[in-house]
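If it is no trouble, can you show me the amino acids of a protein and the C-alpha coordinates describing how it folds?
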Amino acid sequence: MSTTTKGAVLRIILPRTKSENLLAQLGSSRRLERREILLSPGRLTTEEIAKYIREFAKLRDETLHTIRLLGAPRKARNNVEPMKDPGGKLDEYWKQLDRIRDQYRESQSRIEKLEREIEDAKKTIGLINQILETGFAIHDVRTSGLGFNKILGRITTRRLQDAQKALQTNLKDQVLIAIGNRKADWTHLLVAVPGDKASVALQTLVLHDFVQTEIPNVDQPDLKAALATEAQRRDGTSKQLEAERAKLQEFLLLASERMNQLADISQEALIFLRAVLRMGEDTTAEHAFTVLEKNPSNKVLEALTRSGALIEAE
Protein backbone atom coordinates (compact mmCIF):
# COMPACT_ATOMS: atom_id res chain seq x y z
CA MET A 1 0.00 0.00 0.00
CA SER A 2 1.37 3.42 -0.88
CA THR A 3 1.60 6.10 1.79
CA THR A 4 -1.45 8.26 2.36
CA THR A 5 -1.05 12.01 2.12
CA LYS A 6 -3.06 14.95 3.43
CA GLY A 7 -6.47 14.79 1.84
CA ALA A 8 -5.82 11.10 1.18
CA VAL A 9 -7.10 9.45 -1.99
CA LEU A 10 -8.33 5.92 -1.37
CA ARG A 11 -9.43 3.21 -3.78
CA ILE A 12 -11.27 0.46 -1.98
CA ILE A 13 -12.83 -2.84 -3.01
CA LEU A 14 -14.98 -4.32 -0.24
CA PRO A 15 -17.76 -6.85 0.31
CA ARG A 16 -21.15 -5.42 -0.66
CA THR A 17 -22.81 -6.51 2.57
CA LYS A 18 -20.35 -4.51 4.68
CA SER A 19 -19.78 -1.49 2.45
CA GLU A 20 -21.96 1.06 4.29
CA ASN A 21 -20.50 0.38 7.73
CA LEU A 22 -16.92 0.10 6.52
CA LEU A 23 -16.99 3.31 4.49
CA ALA A 24 -18.55 5.19 7.40
CA GLN A 25 -15.44 4.45 9.48
CA LEU A 26 -13.31 6.59 7.14
CA GLY A 27 -14.93 9.85 8.26
CA SER A 28 -16.02 12.78 6.13
CA SER A 29 -14.94 12.95 2.50
CA ARG A 30 -14.76 15.67 -0.13
CA ARG A 31 -15.68 13.14 -2.77
CA LEU A 32 -17.09 9.61 -2.78
CA GLU A 33 -17.89 7.52 -5.85
CA ARG A 34 -19.24 3.99 -5.52
CA ARG A 35 -20.14 1.29 -7.99
CA GLU A 36 -20.77 -2.43 -8.13
CA ILE A 37 -18.12 -4.52 -9.90
CA LEU A 38 -17.71 -8.16 -10.91
CA LEU A 39 -14.34 -9.66 -10.02
CA SER A 40 -13.80 -11.44 -13.32
CA PRO A 41 -10.19 -11.21 -14.55
CA GLY A 42 -10.71 -13.44 -17.59
CA ARG A 43 -8.94 -16.72 -18.07
CA LEU A 44 -6.07 -16.08 -15.70
CA THR A 45 -4.48 -18.65 -13.42
CA THR A 46 -3.56 -17.82 -9.83
CA GLU A 47 0.10 -17.71 -10.88
CA GLU A 48 -0.69 -15.25 -13.69
CA ILE A 49 -2.70 -13.03 -11.34
CA ALA A 50 0.20 -12.99 -8.86
CA LYS A 51 2.59 -12.11 -11.68
CA TYR A 52 0.38 -9.24 -12.86
CA ILE A 53 0.07 -7.95 -9.30
CA ARG A 54 3.86 -7.63 -9.17
CA GLU A 55 3.96 -6.00 -12.61
CA PHE A 56 1.24 -3.46 -11.88
CA ALA A 57 2.83 -2.62 -8.52
CA LYS A 58 6.08 -1.92 -10.37
CA LEU A 59 4.24 0.13 -13.02
CA ARG A 60 2.49 2.14 -10.29
CA ASP A 61 5.75 2.89 -8.48
CA GLU A 62 7.63 3.78 -11.67
CA THR A 63 4.81 6.00 -12.89
CA LEU A 64 4.47 7.89 -9.61
CA HIS A 65 8.26 8.28 -9.49
CA THR A 66 8.27 9.70 -13.03
CA ILE A 67 5.44 12.10 -12.16
CA ARG A 68 7.54 13.43 -9.26
CA LEU A 69 10.72 13.49 -11.37
CA LEU A 70 9.08 15.58 -14.09
CA GLY A 71 7.50 17.90 -11.53
CA ALA A 72 4.00 17.09 -12.79
CA PRO A 73 0.98 17.39 -10.47
CA ARG A 74 -0.62 14.16 -9.32
CA LYS A 75 -4.33 14.29 -10.09
CA ALA A 76 -5.90 11.01 -9.01
CA ARG A 77 -9.12 10.11 -10.78
CA ASN A 78 -11.60 7.27 -10.58
CA ASN A 79 -11.02 4.86 -13.45
CA VAL A 80 -14.43 3.41 -14.31
CA GLU A 81 -13.27 1.16 -17.16
CA PRO A 82 -14.17 -2.49 -16.54
CA MET A 83 -11.23 -4.76 -15.75
CA LYS A 84 -11.99 -7.57 -18.22
CA ASP A 85 -8.37 -8.25 -19.18
CA PRO A 86 -6.05 -6.51 -16.68
CA GLY A 87 -2.81 -7.75 -18.22
CA GLY A 88 -3.79 -7.41 -21.87
CA LYS A 89 -2.38 -3.88 -22.27
CA LEU A 90 0.41 -4.08 -19.72
CA ASP A 91 3.19 -4.06 -22.33
CA GLU A 92 1.61 -1.06 -24.04
CA TYR A 93 1.40 0.79 -20.72
CA TRP A 94 5.13 0.23 -20.17
CA LYS A 95 5.90 1.43 -23.70
CA GLN A 96 3.89 4.59 -23.11
CA LEU A 97 5.74 5.32 -19.87
CA ASP A 98 9.11 4.60 -21.49
CA ARG A 99 8.30 6.91 -24.40
CA ILE A 100 7.43 9.71 -22.00
CA ARG A 101 10.69 9.25 -20.10
CA ASP A 102 12.74 9.02 -23.31
CA GLN A 103 11.15 12.14 -24.78
CA TYR A 104 11.71 14.03 -21.53
CA ARG A 105 15.38 12.99 -21.43
CA GLU A 106 15.85 13.99 -25.07
CA SER A 107 14.22 17.37 -24.44
CA GLN A 108 16.32 17.96 -21.34
CA SER A 109 19.45 16.98 -23.28
CA ARG A 110 18.66 19.53 -26.00
CA ILE A 111 17.99 22.21 -23.39
CA GLU A 112 21.23 21.46 -21.53
CA LYS A 113 23.20 21.55 -24.81
CA LEU A 114 21.75 24.97 -25.65
CA GLU A 115 22.48 26.21 -22.12
CA ARG A 116 26.11 25.09 -22.48
CA GLU A 117 26.37 26.87 -25.84
CA ILE A 118 25.04 30.08 -24.29
CA GLU A 119 27.48 29.83 -21.38
CA ASP A 120 30.32 29.18 -23.84
CA ALA A 121 29.35 32.26 -25.86
CA LYS A 122 29.15 34.36 -22.69
CA LYS A 123 32.56 33.12 -21.58
CA THR A 124 34.09 33.90 -24.97
CA ILE A 125 32.53 37.39 -24.90
CA GLY A 126 34.04 37.95 -21.47
CA LEU A 127 37.48 36.77 -22.66
CA ILE A 128 37.34 38.95 -25.78
CA ASN A 129 36.48 41.97 -23.64
CA GLN A 130 39.45 41.16 -21.41
CA ILE A 131 41.77 41.10 -24.44
CA LEU A 132 40.32 44.38 -25.69
CA GLU A 133 41.10 45.92 -22.30
CA THR A 134 44.76 44.87 -22.54
CA GLY A 135 45.46 47.00 -25.62
CA PHE A 136 46.93 44.04 -27.51
CA ALA A 137 45.58 42.52 -30.73
CA ILE A 138 44.61 38.86 -30.86
CA HIS A 139 47.62 37.96 -33.05
CA ASP A 140 49.90 39.64 -30.48
CA VAL A 141 48.81 37.42 -27.62
CA ARG A 142 48.48 34.07 -29.40
CA THR A 143 51.39 31.67 -29.16
CA SER A 144 52.95 31.25 -32.59
CA GLY A 145 54.62 28.19 -34.01
CA LEU A 146 58.13 29.67 -33.66
CA GLY A 147 58.96 27.91 -30.41
CA PHE A 148 57.89 30.81 -28.19
CA ASN A 149 55.12 30.74 -25.59
CA LYS A 150 53.22 33.90 -24.76
CA ILE A 151 51.88 34.69 -21.31
CA LEU A 152 49.26 37.40 -20.96
CA GLY A 153 47.89 38.82 -17.76
CA ARG A 154 47.74 41.74 -15.40
CA ILE A 155 49.92 42.74 -12.50
CA THR A 156 49.62 45.38 -9.82
CA THR A 157 51.38 48.47 -11.13
CA ARG A 158 53.49 48.80 -8.00
CA ARG A 159 54.96 45.32 -8.60
CA LEU A 160 55.56 45.81 -12.34
CA GLN A 161 59.20 46.93 -12.20
CA ASP A 162 60.14 44.24 -9.71
CA ALA A 163 58.53 41.61 -11.94
CA GLN A 164 60.41 42.88 -15.01
CA LYS A 165 63.73 42.79 -13.15
CA ALA A 166 63.05 39.27 -11.86
CA LEU A 167 62.20 38.01 -15.36
CA GLN A 168 65.34 39.54 -16.83
CA THR A 169 67.46 38.15 -13.98
CA ASN A 170 66.06 34.62 -14.34
CA LEU A 171 65.77 34.49 -18.15
CA LYS A 172 68.21 37.21 -19.31
CA ASP A 173 67.93 37.68 -23.10
CA GLN A 174 65.41 34.82 -23.47
CA VAL A 175 62.42 36.97 -22.46
CA LEU A 176 60.50 39.67 -24.30
CA ILE A 177 58.21 41.96 -22.30
CA ALA A 178 55.46 44.22 -23.65
CA ILE A 179 53.44 46.61 -21.50
CA GLY A 180 49.76 47.04 -22.31
CA ASN A 181 47.01 49.30 -20.99
CA ARG A 182 46.77 50.36 -17.40
CA LYS A 183 43.51 50.30 -15.50
CA ALA A 184 43.22 51.51 -11.91
CA ASP A 185 46.01 49.78 -9.95
CA TRP A 186 46.64 47.12 -12.62
CA THR A 187 48.86 46.99 -15.70
CA HIS A 188 48.43 44.48 -18.51
CA LEU A 189 51.57 42.56 -19.34
CA LEU A 190 52.57 40.29 -22.25
CA VAL A 191 55.60 38.05 -21.90
CA ALA A 192 57.16 35.87 -24.64
CA VAL A 193 59.66 33.13 -23.72
CA PRO A 194 60.97 29.89 -25.26
CA GLY A 195 58.59 26.97 -24.71
CA ASP A 196 60.90 25.25 -22.20
CA LYS A 197 61.10 28.45 -20.10
CA ALA A 198 57.35 29.13 -19.86
CA SER A 199 56.94 27.53 -16.43
CA VAL A 200 59.91 29.51 -15.02
CA ALA A 201 58.47 32.75 -16.36
CA LEU A 202 54.98 32.04 -15.02
CA GLN A 203 56.29 31.10 -11.57
CA THR A 204 58.32 34.31 -11.45
CA LEU A 205 55.29 36.41 -12.41
CA VAL A 206 52.96 34.72 -9.91
CA LEU A 207 55.36 35.66 -7.11
CA HIS A 208 54.67 39.28 -8.07
CA ASP A 209 50.85 39.12 -7.89
CA PHE A 210 50.43 38.32 -11.59
CA VAL A 211 46.94 37.18 -12.72
CA GLN A 212 47.01 35.29 -16.02
CA THR A 213 44.45 36.10 -18.73
CA GLU A 214 42.91 33.27 -20.75
CA ILE A 215 43.13 33.64 -24.53
CA PRO A 216 39.80 33.13 -26.32
CA ASN A 217 39.58 30.67 -29.19
CA VAL A 218 38.32 32.94 -31.96
CA ASP A 219 39.06 32.72 -35.68
CA GLN A 220 38.54 36.36 -36.60
CA PRO A 221 41.55 38.68 -36.39
CA ASP A 222 39.25 41.63 -35.62
CA LEU A 223 38.24 41.26 -31.96
CA LYS A 224 35.31 43.64 -32.24
CA ALA A 225 33.93 41.60 -35.15
CA ALA A 226 34.49 38.43 -33.11
CA LEU A 227 32.65 40.05 -30.21
CA ALA A 228 29.66 40.80 -32.46
CA THR A 229 29.69 37.22 -33.77
CA GLU A 230 29.66 35.75 -30.27
CA ALA A 231 26.89 38.12 -29.17
CA GLN A 232 24.84 37.01 -32.17
CA ARG A 233 25.51 33.37 -31.30
CA ARG A 234 24.45 33.96 -27.70
CA ASP A 235 21.23 35.75 -28.69
CA GLY A 236 20.30 33.24 -31.39
CA THR A 237 20.90 30.30 -29.07
CA SER A 238 18.89 32.02 -26.33
CA LYS A 239 15.89 32.19 -28.69
CA GLN A 240 16.32 28.48 -29.49
CA LEU A 241 16.46 27.73 -25.78
CA GLU A 242 13.28 29.71 -25.13
CA ALA A 243 11.49 27.78 -27.91
CA GLU A 244 12.78 24.44 -26.60
CA ARG A 245 11.60 25.22 -23.09
CA ALA A 246 8.16 26.14 -24.45
CA LYS A 247 8.04 22.79 -26.28
CA LEU A 248 8.98 21.02 -23.05
CA GLN A 249 6.13 22.72 -21.19
CA GLU A 250 3.67 21.64 -23.90
CA PHE A 251 5.03 18.11 -23.72
CA LEU A 252 4.78 18.03 -19.92
CA LEU A 253 1.16 19.13 -20.11
CA LEU A 254 0.26 16.18 -22.34
CA ALA A 255 2.61 13.76 -20.57
CA SER A 256 1.17 14.72 -17.18
CA GLU A 257 -2.31 13.76 -18.34
CA ARG A 258 -1.15 10.39 -19.64
CA MET A 259 1.03 9.63 -16.61
CA ASN A 260 -1.87 10.35 -14.29
CA GLN A 261 -4.00 7.97 -16.34
CA LEU A 262 -1.31 5.28 -16.11
CA ALA A 263 -1.08 5.78 -12.35
CA ASP A 264 -4.86 5.42 -12.04
CA ILE A 265 -4.94 2.37 -14.30
CA SER A 266 -2.11 0.62 -12.48
CA GLN A 267 -3.64 1.25 -9.05
CA GLU A 268 -7.09 0.09 -10.20
CA ALA A 269 -5.64 -3.06 -11.78
CA LEU A 270 -3.57 -3.75 -8.70
CA ILE A 271 -6.45 -3.51 -6.24
CA PHE A 272 -8.75 -5.43 -8.62
CA LEU A 273 -6.35 -8.38 -8.93
CA ARG A 274 -5.69 -8.45 -5.21
CA ALA A 275 -9.46 -8.51 -4.63
CA VAL A 276 -9.82 -11.49 -6.98
CA LEU A 277 -7.33 -13.46 -4.89
CA ARG A 278 -8.92 -12.36 -1.61
CA MET A 279 -12.65 -12.61 -2.46
CA GLY A 280 -12.64 -15.12 -5.28
CA GLU A 281 -13.28 -14.97 -9.01
CA ASP A 282 -16.75 -13.90 -10.27
CA THR A 283 -17.60 -12.36 -6.90
CA THR A 284 -19.73 -9.23 -6.96
CA ALA A 285 -18.16 -6.53 -4.79
CA GLU A 286 -18.32 -2.79 -4.29
CA HIS A 287 -15.68 -0.37 -5.54
CA ALA A 288 -15.25 3.00 -3.82
CA PHE A 289 -13.12 5.97 -4.81
CA THR A 290 -12.90 8.62 -2.13
CA VAL A 291 -10.99 11.79 -1.35
CA LEU A 292 -11.00 12.24 2.43
CA GLU A 293 -10.96 15.49 4.36
CA LYS A 294 -8.10 14.19 6.48
CA ASN A 295 -5.83 11.19 6.66
CA PRO A 296 -7.37 8.06 8.15
CA SER A 297 -5.49 6.54 11.05
CA ASN A 298 -3.56 3.29 10.65
CA LYS A 299 -6.00 1.76 13.13
CA VAL A 300 -8.96 2.50 10.82
CA LEU A 301 -7.15 1.18 7.73
CA GLU A 302 -6.13 -2.00 9.56
CA ALA A 303 -9.72 -2.51 10.73
CA LEU A 304 -10.98 -2.16 7.15
CA THR A 305 -8.41 -4.67 5.92
CA ARG A 306 -9.37 -7.20 8.63
CA SER A 307 -13.01 -6.81 7.54
CA GLY A 308 -12.13 -7.92 4.02
CA ALA A 309 -11.52 -4.58 2.28
CA LEU A 310 -8.69 -4.07 -0.21
CA ILE A 311 -7.20 -0.56 -0.08
CA GLU A 312 -4.87 1.34 -2.37
CA ALA A 313 -4.03 4.73 -0.88
CA GLU A 314 -1.98 7.74 -1.84
